[in-house]
Write a structure and sequence with these properties.
Helix content is 62%, strand content 0%.
Length: 114
């Protein structure tokens, strides 16, 4: 009989530290997915394009989003997340992933400020 050896877990769910660490990781992952999903939905709705076409690696040009569309999307994102997006920083963004990262940063900053 071959016995399989498993490495010991770094954290045990029964440990207070382990449970807190696991909860923090789950919360961070859920928050990241939620923010990304919400950004995708805002872009899709604002531009009236299918949600499945909005992907992190897409450029605004690939999605047919011009400068006026981008401005409207920024207003919609500000309303959706109750944040203020700096116009100069927004101009630098070329991909959907840039917007997701910026919104996530602003949401996290707003959370620590309150």
């Amino acid at each position: 009989m071959v016995r399989r050896l498993e490495p010991p877990p770094l954290f045990h769910a029964g440990d207070a530290l382990g449970a807190a660490h696991i909860a923090e990781l789950v919360t961070q992952k859920a928050m990241a997915v939620t923010i990304q999903d919400r950004v995708f939905r805002v872009i899709s709705t604002s531009r009236r394009i299918p949600l499945v076409t909005v992907q992190p690696d897409c450029t605004f040009e690939e999605l047919g989003i011009d400068s006026l569309d981008r401005l409207n999307i920024l207003f919609d994102l500000e309303s959706e997340f109750e944040i203020e997006i700096d116009d100069e920083e927004a101009k630098i963004a070329t991909k959907v992933s840039d917007i997701v990262a910026g919104v996530k940063r602003l949401v996290e900053a707003a959370g620590t400020a309150s």
